[in-house]
Amino acid sequence: QRQRQQRRQPRRPPRMLLQFWRWMCPTAMWGSRLREVGEAEAAAAAAAGTTELEQDYFWIDLFCVSQHPQQQAQLAERRNAQWFQVELGDMMKAVGTVLQVMVPWEEQGARKRAWCLWEAHRAMSLASDGVELVMLLPPSRSSGFLQDFNMGKAHTVEVEAADATSISDREHILQAVASSMDYASFNAQLVTCIRDWCMETMAELAEQIADDIIGNKSTIPMLYVVALLGLVGDRLSTPHSFNRARELYSKQVELIKAVSGTAHPSLIGCYNNLGLLFLRQHRLSESLEYYKMAAAVYEDVQKLDLVLEPASNPLLGRLQERKESTVAVMFLNMAECYRGLGQCKRALKFYDKSLKLYHSIGGESVDTAVVYNNKAAAYRDMGDLVAAAENFCRAYLLYQLSLGKTHPHTALALFNLGLVYSQQGSAERAMPLLQQAYSYMLCALGPDHDFTRASAETLSNVTKRLMK
To answer: What is the mean pLDDT of each run of 10 residues along the chain (468 residues)?
Structure first.
């Protein structure tokens, strides 16, 4: 009766073109596959603001566009590269949305299917025409996605090696790709799309699990979810994803506080993440506030911690070393904030704290070389060229010992040392170091690298000034 009533009503156009990840499924698998498709349809309808699924029409391309032309010769004759480029694109424009059901995730089927890759890329290329590519994971697959996720796989797309049921379809798809761009560009655009979807899906799942833990609805270990939120936050800590990364790091803090209180060691790393996120945006005052929060947690943890004995308990020793290393980075970044704000004397205090911690867990290393280099810059900003030269020299020697004399970091420390000597008016000490450092940069980075070009310009200016 409902069907008869619907037939009397004007037919609406489909809302979405629904794409399967995998076409050749065993007969016994069809039931479970279609149930997953139904889950994805319901999720897509909800995301689009439709509360009743029956109000949406889903055009399933497997049923509407045959991918088995060997059984339909008349279709194979006219389905050429032009058809894939134009007619399939017109279908997508008419529908408006391409829904890609991301199953079976663990088998990475779509990366190996020419049709799937082409449909996804064609939808992306038609974004300016109002076509939207939506990727969704059926809710029942979420736990498996987190367990089987491998970012390396998401970074691999090779349309030139993709399969198709029809050999002619594969050839025509590759012709359509080649007519617009090279394979590497095509693959790279899809990799970016899949990687972004993976990151956002992981973020949403981690946030949901965190909320469940806070609400006592999940028994998943807290630190696992904290690590997952941190992993995705780190991946998204770029200028265009700043707000999303901030949300994930803040969710880390919320979860830890809700489960373990305000003196848990993991909070140090979470506040560090937030501080570094703002530091990269050159928002120094806001960055410093988060580092102060991290320092306060560290002080509380120090009061509560028992004395660890690494010799008798290696695991505790490694945990202690990792915590101290995190705090050393925290003090270093606090110093950078103070230096950036023009408070070099306060910065020196935190450089020394960072060095003290690094020395306690491993002695002199590349990490301490970084601190000495930045500490020297603070002394230079203060006008104390003697102390600046001393610290640049220590940084250079440590870089040379750890990385080799031709490494760019070593060369940069040597160049900075030469610049300090030039500021002291000592041309005979400055020029050999500057020229040697420039030759190392030229060898390691090439003439077109930003560091090499800047060094060449600085060397030219210093030479002219010293000759006067």
So the answer is: 48 49 32 60 63 55 58 63 88 82 63 83 91 81 68 72 83 92 92 86 90 90 88 85 93 93 89 93 94 92 55 41 78 95 95 92 87 95 94 94 90 91 86 89 87 85 75
Q: 218-222: long-range contacts at Cβ-Cβ below 8 A with a sequence spacing of 24 or more?
A: 222/255, 222/256, 222/259, 222/260
pLDDT at 13: 47
DSSP 220-278: S-HHHHHHHHHHHHHHT-SGGGHHHHHHHHHHHHHHHHHHH-S--THHHHHHHHHHHHH
- What's the rounded Cα separation, in Å, for the pair 155 and 389? 45
Instruction: Please tell me what DSSP assigns to residue 136.
Output: E
* 360 vs 168: CA distance, rounded Å: 66
Strand partners, 389: none
Residues 6+ apart with CB under 8 A from 27: none
Contact 177, 221 (CB under 8 A): no
Q: Which of 219, 355, 359, 335 lies closest to 284 in space, CA to CA?
A: 335
**Using CA atoms, how far apart are residues 62 and 18, in angstroms rounded to an integer?**
8
* Structure token pair of residue 426: 């000592």
pLDDT at 70: 54
State the amino acid at position 426 in one-letter form. Answer: S
Please report, as a single letter, which amino acid is at residue 198. C
CA nearest neighbour of 332 among 279, 384, 396, 262: 279
Whether the CB-CB separation of 280 and 290 falls below 8 Å is answered with no
Query: Is the separation of the CB atoms in 395 and 386 below 8 Å?
Result: no
In contact, 105 and 141? CB cutoff 8 Å: yes
pTM, two decimal places: 0.76
pLDDT at 315: 36
Total residue count of the chain as it appears in this document: 468
Are the C-beta atoms of residues 400 and 378 closer than 8 Å to each other?
Answer: no
> What are the beta bridge partners of residue 97?
132
Distance CA 154, CA 199 (A): 10
Dihedral angle of Cα 440, 446, 451, 453, to the nearest 10 degrees: 110
CA dihedral for 337, 341, 346, 349, sign (positive or negative): positive
Distance CA 266, CA 333 (A): 18
Q: What is the pLDDT of residue 347?
A: 96
CA–CA gap between residue 48 and residue 38 (Å, rounded): 15
Residue 344's CB: how many other CB atoms inside 10 A?
Answer: 21
Q: Which residue has the tokens 């059984």?
A: 71
Q: Return the pLDDT at 10.
A: 47
Instruction: Quote the tokens at residue 322.
Output: 């990792």
